[in-house]
Every structure is written in C-alpha cells, then in structure tokens.
Amino acid sequence: MRPGRLSAICGLVILSVVCAGAPAMAQVSSPLGGGGPYASPPGPPRIQVNPRPVYRRCASWYVVQYRPSGPVIFPEKHCWWQRW
Known about the structure:
Elements: H1 3-26, E1 54-67, E2 70-83
Antiparallel strand pairs: 1-2
C-alpha cells in the first residue's frame, strides 16, 4: 500500500471513531445541571413559609362564686395564641 493511502484510511478510521463518540458525549449531563436531551425538567417552585413567632396572651380576673359557706372569690383566666 502506498503511504498516502494508508494515512487516508487511518484518518477516516479516527474520524469515524470521534464522530461515533460525539452523540454519546452530548447526552451526558454535567454535574452542574447543564441539561441535555434526557435531562429531567426542573422541579416545582419551592415555597418557604417563615411564620412570625407566636406568643400566649392571657387575661385574668376575679369572680365571686356563691357557696353554702358564703361567697368565695376565685381567679379566672382566659388565654389565646397571638402573632406579633
């Protein structure tokens, strides 16, 4: 074989190997999420809920309860949760 023909055949073989590997390299997604033809779609938007702190509010008072032994004063209290 002539040297020119041998180098042409080697060049065609190398070119076919490189072209055959190119589609496989294009399908690989990058670790940074670069995508590709088979990359998964982005997930749903994230909603972050940062509730304001809550605290307990109370109101207290005294009531008179009538007993057989006579009237007695008792404390009463009502509490609820409230945001800032």
